[in-house]
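Bug #2210: C-alpha cell dump truncated for Probable nicotinate-nucleotide adenylyltransferase?
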Amino acid sequence: MDLWRGQRIGLLGGSFNPAHEGHLHISLEAIKRLGLDHVWWLVSPQNPLKSSKDMAPLQDRLRYARSLVRHPRIHVSDIEQRLGTTYTANTLERLKSLLPNSRLIWLMGADNLQQFPHWNRWTDIVASVPLAVFDRNHYSLRGLTGKMATRFRHSRLSVQAAKALATKTAPAWVFIPLRRHPASATEIREAQIANSPFSVAVKPKE
Ligand SMILES: Nc1ncnc2c1ncn2[C@@H]1O[C@H](COP(=O)(O)OP(=O)(O)OP(=O)(O)O)[C@@H](O)[C@H]1O
Ligand SMILES: O=C(O)c1ccc[n+]([C@@H]2O[C@H](COP(=O)([O-])O)[C@@H](O)[C@H]2O)c1
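Reproduced locally. Full output below:
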C-alpha cells in the first residue's frame, strides 16, 4: 500500500451498472480540476439503497468498466468486495487505515448530493474525507439547496479553491460546475430492454 504514499486519490464509488462515458468525463475533470494523481472506480457489490433486482453481477460490471477505461490514472477496483463493505462510511474507514499516507477524496455526481442524507452515517462520511460533487443534468439545483449542502455550507470551498481540496481537513467539499454529460446507466439499461428481441413492443395509445 506504500505505493500510494503521498498520492491524491479520488474515489468514485458507483454501481457502474453499466459504466459509461459520464463516469469517464467526471473522472477526467476530477484529475484536472482537483489536481488528483489517480481516480479509483470503486465498483460497489450492491448499493444499499438500490434494488438488487436490476443489478448485473459484480464480475460483469467490473469487466465492462475495465474494458471502457483506457487511462493510466483511472483504476477500476473491486476493493469493496474484498473488504466486505457496502456502506461508504465503512469503506472509507477501512481505506483510511490501509492508506494512512495518501489523500483520499470522495467523488460523486450531484444526484448523490441530493440523496446523501439517506446514506448510512452520512455526517461521519462528511467528517472523514473531503468531497467533490460534479454537476449533473436535473439534479444540481436540488442538491445545492438540500440538507447536506445547507448543513455543511460553511465547509464548502469556492470552485477557484478546488485544487486545494485534497490538502483540507474534513469537513470540506466543493461543487464543480462543468459541461454536463448526459449519460445515465438507467437510460442505457432501459434502451437495452427496449432493443431486446424479448421485449414486448408497447403501442402508444391513440
Ligand atoms: N453523467 C454524469 N454526470 C455526473 N455524474 C455522474 C454521471 N453519471 C454518473 N455519475 C456519478 O457517478 C457515480 C456512479 O454513478 P452510477 O454508477 O450510479 O451511474 P448512474 O448513471 O448514476 O446510474 P443509475 O442511473 O443506475 O443510477 C455517482 O456518484 C453518479 O452521481
Ligand atoms: O453508504 C450508504 O449508505 C450508501 C448509500 C447509497 C449509495 N452509496 C454509495 O454511493 C456510491 C454511488 O452509488 P450509485 O449506485 O449511485 O452509483 C456507491 O459507492 C454506493 O455504495 C452508499
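Output looks complete on our side. Confidence is low (pLDDT under 50) at residues 201-206. Marking as cannot-reproduce; reopen if the truncation happens again.
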